Amino acid sequence: MNNETNPAHDTQKGGHKGERHFFRFHRPHVHLHSLYGDDWFALKAEKFARFFGTPTFLIGQTVIVGVWILINIIGVTQFDVYPFILLNLAFSLQAAYAAPLILLAQTRQSDRDKAHAEADALHREDLARASDERLAVAAHQTTMLVDLVRQNTQLTETIKSLTERVETLTIEVHKQVIASASSATR
């Protein structure tokens, strides 16, 4: 018995039948799971790349750059004088690592979006198939109902004609009984 039809499997895993039903469109994409979720480096890289676009990062970087420039201009220290070559080197290094990390995050998001789009398409196909099946069952039941109504009408007509025939025979028998009773009393 496979896992899809074994209700005991659901309870063993702690899941419910509804959960299994919900994730049925994700099963074909399980092979993609390692592309966007399993390895440590990819998770950390994506988290870091997502951090690049946050207001916290932008404000923090602006404050650090401002303090860097201010410390070197005021003369508190002279580790990076006016053309700020070390600061430019830091920005170049940051850009060199940020671009691939952002591309990695975009690729992983693209893979997730593709898997979700395919799952949605399968879900829509499943809904359409279920709707078609319901329409076919409804059409079949309607045909059966029409047939039953036709048979009921035929039976009603047969009962009516038989009732009229029984009434006619009853009247004839009644006339003969009365005629024989009046001839017997005479």
Description of the molecule:
The chain is mainly α. It is 78% helix and 0% strand. It has five helices and no strands. The protein has helices at 7-13, 17-22, 40-51, 55-74, 85-185. Helix 3 (40-51) crosses helix 5 (85-185). It starts with 6 loop residues before the first helix and ends with a helix. The relative contact order is 0.06. Mean pLDDT is 83; it is low at 1-15.
Which structural traits does this protein have?
mainly alpha, 78% helix, 186 residues
* Broad shape: rod-shaped
Tell me about the largest β-sheet. none
Low-confidence segments, ≥5 residues, pLDDT <50? 1-15
Tell me the fraction of residues in β-strands, as a range: under 5%
User: What percentage of residues falls in helices of 4 or more residues?
Assistant: over 70%
Please count the helical segments: 5
Helical/strand content category: mainly alpha
Q: Count the strands?
A: 0
How many angstroms does the end-to-end distance come to? 92 Å
What value does the Rg take, in angstroms?
43 Å
Average residue-wise pLDDT: 83
Topology pattern, helix = H, strand = E: HHHHH
